[in-house]
Design brief:
single chain, 5-stranded antiparallel β-sheet, SWIM-type domain-containing protein, about 15% strand, 5-stranded mixed barrel, about 650 residues
Length: about 650
């Protein structure tokens, strides 16, 4: 039975397709049709889609109906699951274009039944890749038993390097279906060779290329630059035989039994991911101090993230209400825990509720035990370790702040001195010469309450708040708050309802005027009129950032034209500001972009993509390290505000 109601072809209407299936379809397409493939994929945006038993159909014109019937996992895992009614099928343009238009399936979530590779556990949080546990090989490597990549692994890494270097040289506009298929084919080879980190980077690169070409909302060019850098970095080092086990990444994310476990809720976090997943994650702290989490993230959009505010998720035989868990606790038996702190939900799990606790007692108080500068230094020290779940941007931090104003949708605040380090009475004073901290919304989606809550907090300068959030590793002295609560013993602080148990989840709970203290001229500060410059945004490093991003968005020729146009304007300001190395690597990238050799007869040859890719990689790596150091120092340097 078929429903042929016309609907625009969109990624969320089509089933995901395994990388090797899409890559094989492009490889089987006659070369004369390659130039028409991108245009055909673009035209599918207005093609009607119908529902059929077990799948969908795409009407591609007269005598060309493409039918997709995904397997049990919900993804197209075999070439026979994609059929076209035209005479040229299966090597036809219609079938190939539809497969290319489908989302890229994660082989860990949608394994190929015929594959001999053991799948890793799915990412139940839908969060961005990189929060990894240790593989067996990685653990052995950390014990000093590093093993060089095998011949097959080096060959797979070399194929990934060549595909990624070609994409970089071409730029996003020219990185259409055929270059993407080469990346997908190389990603499949990396999976077969046991290189999960390289495979993950390749798949994220393809998704980023599609998002940028389609101008998807919420996509940032900086994210594509970051993932392409990771892909080239990992593939290049593996192809050269580097034995560092961190380059291999996850082979299997195994959940291990953890016996009896007592956990206490910290807060809820709504999740809206770019790859079509949404839901809620509740952050927890175990009695022994470990940071854990329990999530309910499934395919869906922003409405699912909003509706999960009081979602009930099955944890074995227990029904867990996330709103209750975030403000209470559980004593769990028979649970399993992943290396990155995710609680399993197996059939043998049993749990009983614990008495609610606030942030100032028990293991939750450890979140606020250390000064921010000390926490930031520790997290940035782990920034280069892809297997450390405590690195900047992933681990939760807690602090007590005083609101001093707002800039745009950001709240400006200062860290409060420890309670024993001030004689200012019941209201603790800010840390002398401490930095101005920016509180930026985790997600600005209008269905969530982050922005509205931050505006409410910013309306009361002088307000003392206790904050749980994450560091922003890409912006100076910036924190993404997930929840707020009253400062213990303070007067000019929040007055939350009793059933909130001393905390407000900024994504779900709506702070009202009645939750704020009365306006007291003696307790409130004057609004901020100006704030000190951002060390990263105001430095001349933006010139290097622009060149690096231009290389991705426009390709090699765009870098050539930009370098010719700027001349010494690119390196001069960098050297005068003391960024001599940044000037050197940027100049090397500009020179390499225009370098072409000559053959034995003196004729100019095609430029070398390898040397250009290494130059871009060196520039990007130095830029990231320099920006990271500036951001780290912004948390310890004195801040300046005009009141």
């Amino acid at each position: 039975m078929t429903d042929r109601t016309p609907t625009a072809v969109q990624a969320d209407l089509l089933p995901p397709v395994l990388p090797e299936v899409a890559a094989a379809a492009v490889a089987a397409l006659p070369p004369r049709l390659h130039k028409r493939l991108d245009a055909t994929v673009g035209r599918l945006a207005g093609v009607p889609v119908g529902r059929v038993d077990g799948g969908v159909s795409v009407d591609c014109g007269a005598e060309a109906l493409v039918t997709l019937t995904p397997g049990p996992t919900g993804a197209v895992t075999d070439a026979h699951q994609a059929r076209c009614s035209c005479l040229l099928a299966p090597r036809c343009l219609h079938r190939t274009a539809v497969l290319v238009a489908c989302p890229v399936a994660d082989p860990a979530t949608h394994p190929d039944p015929a594959s001999a590779v053991a799948p890793s556990a799915p990412d139940s949080h839908g969060a961005k890749a990189g929060r990894t546990g240790r593989t067996e090989k990685s653990a052995a490597g950390r014990a000093g038993q590093n093993t060089a990549p095998t011949k097959a692994q080096r060959a797979a890494a070399g194929a990934l390097w060549r595909a990624a270097a070609a994409v970089l040289a071409a730029g996003v506009p020219a990185a259409g279906a055929v270059p993407q298929a080469e990346l997908l084919r190389a990603a499949h080879s990396a999976r077969l060779a046991g290189l999960p980190r390289a495979e993950s980077a390749a798949l994220r690169t393809v998704r980023g290329l599609r998002a940028h070409r389609e101008r998807q909302a919420g996509h940032r060019l900086a994210e594509l630059v970051e993932v392409l850098h990771d892909l080239l970095y990992v593939a290049g080092r593996l192809a050269a035989g580097d034995p560092d086990p961190a380059l291999v990444g996850i082979l299997r994310r195994a959940y291990q039994p953890d016996g009896t476990l007592e956990v206490y809720g910290v807060c809820r976090e709504p999740v809206i991911s770019a790859n079509g997943y949404a839901g809620v994650v509740t952050h927890l702290v175990a009695a022994d101090g470990r940071r854990l989490s329990f999530g309910d993230v499934k395919p869906g959009g922003p409405d699912r993230a909003r509706d999960c505010a009081r979602a009930v998720t099955e944890m074995g035989a227990v029904a867990v209400n996330h709103a209750v868990l975030a403000r209470g606790g559980l004593r769990i038996t028979g649970t399993t825990v992943s290396p990155d702190g995710r609680l399993g939900a197996g059939k043998g799990v049993r749990a009983s509720p614990l008495t609610e606790t606030d942030w100032s007692t028990g293991p939750l108080a450890e979140l606020f035990a250390r000064p921010l500068a000390e926490v930031v230094t520790a997290q940035f020290a782990a920034a280069d370790d892809p297997e450390d779940p405590a690195r900047a941007g992933t681990a939760l931090v807690g602090c007590d702040l005083m609101v001093v104003g707002a800039v745009g949708d950001q709240v400006l605040a200062r860290e409060l001195a420890p309670a024993t380090a001030t004689d200012a009475g019941p209201e603790r004073a800010p840390v002398p010469d401490g930095p101005v901290i920016r509180l930026a919304p985790v997600d600005s989606h209008p269905m969530l309450a982050h922005v509205a809550n931050l505006r409410r907090l910013a309306s009361r300068p002088g307000l003392r708040i206790r904050v749980v959030g994450r560091l922003d590793p890409d912006r100076a002295s910036t924190l993404h708050p997930l929840a707020v609560g009253p400062v213990p013993g303070g007067a000019a602080t929040l007055r939350l309802p009793a059933d909130w148990h001393g905390r407000a989840d900024l994504g779900y709970d709506e702070i009202q005027g009645s939750h704020l203290p009365p306006r007291d001229p003696a307790a409130m500060t004057a609004p901020v009129l100006a704030v000190g410059a951002d060390a990263v945004a105001e430095s001349p490093l933006w010139r290097v950032r622009r060149l690096v991003e231009l290389a991705v968005s426009g390709g090699r020729r765009a870098v050539v034209e930009a370098a010719r146009g700027e001349g010494t304007g690119l390196t001069g300001p960098l050297r005068r500001a003391g960024f001599a190395t940044a000037a050197t690597v940027a100049a090397a990238l500009a020179d390499e972009s225009d370098r072409r050799g000559r053959d034995a007869f003196g004729r100019r040859t095609d430029p070398d993509p390898d040397r250009y890719a290494w130059a871009w990689l060196a520039t990007t790596a130095h830029l990231a390290a320099t920006e990271r150091e500036l951001i780290r120092s912004s948390w310890t340097a004195p801040g300046s505000v005009d009141l």
